[in-house]
Amino acid sequence: MSTQAKTLLTPEQYLEIERKAEFRSEYYQGEMFAMSGATITHTALVVNIAVDLAPQLRPGPCRVYTQDLRVQVSATGLYTYPDLVIACREYRLLDARQDTLLNPVVIIEVLSESTEAYDRGKKFGHYRTLESLQEYVLVAQDRVQVERFTRQPGEQWLLTAANRLEDTIALESVGCQLHLADIYEGVDWNANPEGD
């Protein structure tokens, strides 16, 4: 019985493959990981958040981007696609292709049953190494709940949570408010009983 050695990719090989691929994949430690499709609830939440934030950001130097913008976590080597990212001038991009952001200020992830543990644990561990990151937001899709982690001095992170439709979460680093009523507007709770 023989075992075949796993072929590991360099970041450059990953980017070459990924930029031609029909479907998105994350990359970490030489391996590509295909990303699953999103549910209708997940997609609705991402769109609602983007629609809520875009006009608030428009007068200033920051913009919100959806899950098609790749983020590289330089310190750990992770390449990933957060659900939403807020970046401000001066953007730092990996190369002239302008498809990989290096310095997000806010990252927002919509949680699902299959990704929640990773988003809260290892993925947040990667994100915390981004010096530019000031706020990390987790949005539940099976209930009304938004959690914001804010960077504090000494590499501490402060948690603020909201779970009522009348609540708002301030994104202080970019001068915006997330309105839970707007985030969850039109969400069909029955459309996604199992999560992503």
Characterization of the model:
- Strand 1 and strand 2 (about 30-35) form a beta hairpin.
- The chain has helices at about 10-20, 40-55, 115-120, 120-130, 180-185; strands at about 25-30, 30-35, 60-65, 70-75, 80, 85-90, 100, 105-110, 135-140, 145-150, 155-160, 170, 175-180.
- The mean pLDDT is about 90.
- The radius of gyration is 17 Å and the shape is globular.
- Strands 3-6-8-9-10-11 form a six-stranded mixed β-sheet, covered by helices on one side. A three-stranded mixed β-sheet has the order 5-4-7, with no helix packed on it.
- The chain has five helices and 13 strands.
- The protein has one domain (about 40-190): tt1808, chain A (Alpha-Beta Complex).
- About 20% of the residues lie in helices and about 30% in strands.
- The protein is of the alpha+beta class.
Task: Describe this structure in a few short sentences.
With 196 residues, this protein is α+β, with helices and mostly antiparallel strands. The protein has one domain (38-188): tt1808, chain A.
